[in-house]
Amino acid sequence: MTESVDVLLIGGGIMSATLGTFLSELQPDWKIVVHERLGDVGLESSNAWNNAGTGHAALCELNYMPPAADGSVDPAKAVSINEQFQLSRQFWSSLVDDGVLDEPSTFINSTPHMTFVTGEKDVAYLKKRYEALRTQPLFSGIEYSEDSRVINSWAPLLMQKRRKGEPFAATRVPAGTDVDFGAVTHQMFDNLRTRGVDVITNREVKNLKRLKDGTWRAKYRNVIGGTPGYINARFVFVGAGGWAIKLLQSSGIPEIKGYGVFPIGGQWLKTSKPELVAQHQAKVYSQASVGAPPMSVPHLDTRVVDGETSLLFGPFATFSPKFLKQGKVWDLVTQVRPHNIGPMLKVAVDNPGLIKYLVGELLKNHAKKVDSLRDFMPTARDEDWELLDAGQRAQVMKKDPQKGGVLQFGTEVVAAKDGSIAGLLGASPGASTAVSIMLELLRSCFPDRISGWEPRLRELIPSYGEKLNERPAEAAETLGATSATLQLSA
């Protein structure tokens, strides 16, 4: 007999965990089931070692404020990303109060966010960026310096044995965070299980078919034993990382036409040497290489995972045709359809810089990667650092009326017109903005219910429906309240 449920969540990552938690709060009478193909939740992009854990709030990431042709910088995108992360902070704060999430230090820790650049051009740009952000309420406390002594006090590893006469500058925001999204994912799913949600691992959804009554039938295969089965659902969310496109294509919804994805993997340099870890308490971002995707912006990060503090540098791009770290080698080819081959070829033609960047990255050995680290940390030694494989990302390629096809960075929700199915494509800053993304999904897929859910949403997220940056007093109060609950120092 085929089981029928209200909601089927495909994929055991931060997105499904967040949506499942929302729906269990808003509609506790609904039957929710989660299917994850691996042996546990949070093993792909949500795993702590597979992502930067930056808690992306645009405090240090330069790609959210690129200079215009006239050299000016616009803070609007950075402010928007910060607003989205504040929603995540508020939601997690409420879940801590409600006992859904554990002790805050198990998943979030104070870690200043810095940007460090060298060369006259980038120093001039960083100063403009600082001037544009320092008056924005959500960026209150941002600091700027070109003084080696000041920067040394912020992050000593950046300044030791740096060349004299080299122009450099840095910004610092003490209120930054390091987030273990794997821990958040696990804790949310643990709580969902206590609420009666079936979280089934080792179960791979193979395809989706719309039934005559408008519901969806998912065909699955149990990884252990290989037995097949079916489950019917009124609503389906595909949070399967790079495999989301395959399942959305199998559903036949017209909204997925024209979409493709391009996989990019990564590696980190990692050290846990106490004498190095003790000298660096920050996440330090810089400028991306020419042609590099935003997810490959170099950064030297403090990471706290399972109570252990380490330093990561990277990421260095790798290539695999797999859409997931534990995907299949034919993923890239099997996504090709008549409706997306044109946009995908156009993206290839229009992005030679990306191809050149990827080839250059693939030619780097361990020593060359440590050479790249020395741009940040001149005293870096090869033997102190080991290579660690990061996660696999699938960048969105889509049809564009003017260009024919574009490579899109970031994340995008693709939903059927009737709201009965939706999936998430793309990568960074996904995990950090999962709450904002899922709130938008609730509004678009459940328009007849959202007004009834809003009172509870405002309890969970005090600034729901508002812009904190436009309300300085409220922004300060909200930031202070979530910092206190999450035990953050700033």
Automatic annotation (TrEMBL):
Pathway: Carbohydrate metabolism; tricarboxylic acid cycle; oxaloacetate from (S)-malate (quinone route): step 1/1
GO biological process terms held by the UniProt record: tricarboxylic acid cycle
Lineage: Bacteria, Bacillati, Actinomycetota, Actinomycetes, Micrococcales
Record family assignment: Belongs to the MQO family.
Family annotation (SUPFAM superfamilies): FAD/NAD(P)-binding domain
InterPro entries noted in UniProt: FAD/NAD-bd_sf (IPR036188), MQO (IPR006231)
Record EC number: 1.1.5.4
UniProt name for this protein: Probable malate:quinone oxidoreductase
